[in-house]
Amino acid sequence: MRRTYGDAREVKSYRLLGSLPKLQHLSLDLDVSDLLRDVSNIQGILGEDMWPEESDDEEFDEGWIPFDMEALPNHEFHREFDLEIYDVTRSNAPTNGRIRGALINAAIDKSLACSIFETISGGKPKVSVPLERLDLKAIEVGEFGGVMSDATLGVFKTIAKQWRVEKNPRYDTDEPVAKETGEPVRFLTPTMTLPDPEMARSWRLLWPENESGDWKEEWHSFPLSV
């Protein structure tokens, strides 16, 4: 299932899964790739109401960022920076704005994993069996339709966590239980830094630096539009 920045369309897809009355165990692959890697299909993915009106500004059209900046925190449209090519040395390189959008999709922490579980569960009809277990896995991580450096891919893989979320066995709470699964990123070393100033700025626009000083510990997911 393709992630679309946690918007209403994504939430609707989770609830549709929940509408299956006999669904108890679900393994869900989340496509967190850049939506604009397949421009020919982007209107079908997002719908006409998120497709920009025709513009005489070709530069804006080429770098258009397919989500509502005003609806999410720290997502102001930084026009000049967002329309710049992230890595001019590579073919089919995305803009900085598309990098930031893909970071939003890839960021899957415990909070988001539990929220997805609860949203699917919330779609259950009155006469149904409860959702017992949900396995979440991010796929197409850092995929933009071109070749990206290992360092850049490492940033995306650091936040694209895999989770197993289960119904809480306790009778006094509905809060699900989540456990991280999957292998650690192999080329991620304790001293790994953000690979370049452009990635660092895209990152800090989403997750400002805090007291830890370690970018790998400073990120979080963005909530679903429920």
Which keywords apply here?
226 residues, alpha+beta, 4-stranded mixed β-sheet, 8 helices
Q: Mind explaining what this structure looks like?
A:
- The protein is α+β, with helices and mostly antiparallel strands.
- It has one domain (8-217).
- The protein is 32% helix and 11% strand.
- The chain has eight helices and four strands.
- It has helices spanning 8-18, 39-46, 58-63, 79-82, 96-106, 110-122, 150-159, 197-206; strands at residues 25-31, 133-139, 162-166, 177-181.
- It has a four-stranded mixed sheet, with helices on one face.
- Helix 1 crosses helix 6 and helix 5 (96-106) packs across helix 8.
- The radius of gyration is 18 Å and the shape is globular.
- It starts with 7 loop residues before the first helix and ends in a 20-residue tail after the last helix.
- Residues 54-64 and 66-74 have low confidence and may be disordered.
**Beta-strand fraction estimate:** 5-15%
- The gross shape turns out to be globular
Mean pLDDT: 82
**Count of discrete domains:** 1
- What would you call the quaternary organization? single chain
Proportion of residues in helical segments: 25-40%
| Termini gap | 18 Å
Lateral arrangement of strands in the main beta sheet: 1-2-3-4
Order of helices and strands: HEHHHHHEHEEH
